[in-house]
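USER:
Class, as today's exercise, take the chain set out below, and explain how the chain folds.
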Amino acid sequence: MTTPAFSGIWPILYAFFDERDRLDEGALLRQVEACITAGADGIAALGLATEVAKLSPDERAMLLRWLTRAAGGRVPVAVTVFGESEAEQVPFARMAAELGASWVILQPPPRRPLPEDELLRFFGRVIDACPIPAAIQNAPDYLGVGLSDPAIRRLKDRHPNFLLLKGEGSAVSIRRTIDALKGEVAVFNGRGGLELPDILRAGCAGMIPAPELVDVQVAIWRTTQTGDWAEADRLYAEVLPLIVFVMQSIPHLVTYGKRAAARRLGLGPVHDRAPGDLPTPFGLAVLDRLLAPLPPLL
């Protein structure tokens, strides 16, 4: 399953807002161009970094159209599907396919509690209705719900269109998931690029980080493909302090990771959409210090 279409570095874009709290198309287009220039293998959107739960259905559809139009077939696109019900998720997945997305990433419905068997059935119904390859996002630490490795194995056995997985776990835990799937599903990891070399050593097909370090993460991916693991480890060590700072939590990522991306992209002030964390003077000073060695992305 680790074919060129389903491997490598696929940054997941931030949602930037203007001073009137509207989605900023120009900022999205600049992220797309930076990712393509850096050599990203694909681009993703509408996940946790995109603050998908804060977007209205119309905004999610608008952002999807902007992204697929901006990518213009130059790189493939993956789209996270958010929604409370099958009736919400299936039409959005079909829209993504119609607009040219290569695959979709299904999030668990936001209602809680959600028993594992119910989540398994929910994912299965949506996967079967998807006209393009389907992934699930398995992120219990971030979303509060997820599937165990045996349940993920059952999902694959029952639903052949389940072809990819976006995990959010350590290298050790993701290796257990990869072993359970026996190479039948292309497994990506997230967590902002934490443990990237070891995630790849564990057998991941790639990584879906946010875009602030896309150039370095692409370089790490490419060095691993030539077998130069020492260089991959060196590159990773240079940016690890920034990754650790940004990835304290999803709200922290949205606050400081987005500002890191804005700084490297040459964007103006970042406007936050409530609810969320606001930056502090100390936090911004830390970010300034960690960004200082990095050149602009564009």
User: Anything to note?
Assistant: The chain has one domain: 4-291. Strands lie at 8-9, 43-45, 77-81, 103-106, 134-138, 162-167, 186-189, 206-207. The mean pLDDT is 96.
